[in-house]
Design brief:
Layout (H helix, E strand, L loop, with lengths): L1 H22 L3 H52 L20 E8 L4 E7 L5 E5 L16 E2 L1
Antiparallel strand pairs: 1-2, 2-3, 3-4
C-alpha cells in the first residue's frame, strides 16, 4: 500500500508542475520582455533629449532672426547699427527666456552677433554685410550653429 501512495503523490506533483509550466511564463521569457522594454525606453529617452536640444537651438535661431529685424529697424531710424541690446530700446528687441544674445560688432556697414541657450552647449552666429564673419557663419545673413 505504501508504494502506491508514493506513486500517486509523485504523479499529482508532476501533473501540477506540468500544468503550472504550461500556464505561466518562464524566467527567460520574462527577462527577454524586460530587456526589450528597456531598449525601447532608452531609444525614446534619447529621442526626447534630442528634441529638447533642437527646441533650444530653434529658440536661439528665432532670437537671432528677431535681432536682425530690430537691427534693420534701428538702422533705418539712426543710420547705423546698434552696438548693444540696450541701444535697441525696450520696444526694439527682447530675447527669449534662457537665451543670451551678444552683439559682437556693429558699424554703419554691418553687424555680427552670437547667441546661446543656457540649456545647450551649441552656439549660433549671424553676421551681415561688411561685418567680419564670426564663429561658423560664412555667408552674410545666414544663421550658423555649432
Amino acid at each position: 500500500m505504501k508504494p502506491r501512495f508514493l506513486e500517486h503523490f509523485v504523479e499529482v506533483l508532476y501533473r501540477g508542475a506540468v500544468a503550472r509550466s504550461e500556464s505561466a511564463f518562464t524566467l527567460i521569457e520574462l527577462t527577454v520582455v524586460v530587456v526589450i522594454i528597456g531598449l525601447v525606453a532608452s531609444i525614446a529617452v534619447n529621442r526626447f533629449g534630442n528634441s529638447r536640444a533642437n527646441a533650444y537651438v530653434s529658440s536661439v535661431k528665432a532670437d537671432l532672426r528677431n535681432l536682425a529685424l530690430a537691427e534693420e529697424s534701428y538702422y533705418y531710424d539712426n543710420g547705423a547699427y546698434a552696438g548693444s541690446l540696450a541701444a535697441l530700446g525696450t520696444g526694439g528687441y527682447q530675447s527669449s527666456p534662457g537665451v543670451d544674445v551678444t552683439i559682437n560688432e556693429a558699424t554703419n556697414a554691418g553687424w555680427s552677433a552670437t547667441a546661446t541657450h543656457q540649456d545647450t552647449p551649441k552656439q549660433c552666429y549671424l553676421f551681415t554685410e561688411a561685418a567680419a564673419p564670426i564663429g561658423s557663419a560664412t555667408t552674410p545673413g545666414n544663421i550658423s550653429c555649432t
